[in-house]
């Protein structure tokens, strides 16, 4: 991944002197050969002369992997040098590094700079900081605006965050739209929330069959609340046939995964099921956990 990032940003270096471009490319070749010291020796003098791509590349290289505090300090220096030359990737990388060190005010500044330049992930991160009041006052209205800017660029985490924020504000139909957008990109919690909206007819026409299918999709990713809700639907016969044995097996999996309400459902099912079916359900639980579709 690091090599791709470096190569991507080198592609924008055509205005550099030809020699600098060639030397920078030598650094890429050295890095691909696993020769990090040579890559550092090539990029460092270029960076010291103000080459923005070398500065960014050095920052990426120094911050990668198990970087120690000295490496991170050097990475910060080069990211900042490139960020001050309006390198968008460096601005976001610097903000990420500052946030990881809980320097919230400085991180918020650089996320803001990158967000205004159109970086979707920076827009999302700025929204989170505004929502939580990190690095400055909280501002839920501005948080929603930045979530939306990132969501409209297709960033699925922003789509989910926007859906959650809109649900809090009572705009359930728009929330369901954004949960659906994130779910289509594989966001597990968004998939669960969309299923919840469909099962209750909140912001969507009620569709138990589709809700059940979406819970199954999220359960297949190991999401405990979806196992639990799928168990409820099996027990109540909503969205498909009623099956206490599968419902109990799913509830057992949900409890294993730490869902707080699962034990009460298990107790309720024990009260209405014969002993032999309870044993069958307990034997089925492992299969349900490995392959939720077999119990969905």
From TrEMBL:
It comes from the Bacteria. Keywords: Signal. The keyword Transport does not apply. Residues 1-20 form the signal peptide. The keyword Transcription does not apply. InterPro entries: Sel1-like, Sel1_AlgK, TPR-like_helical_dom_sf. This is Sel1 repeat family protein. It comes from Roseinatronobacter bogoriensis subsp. barguzinensis.
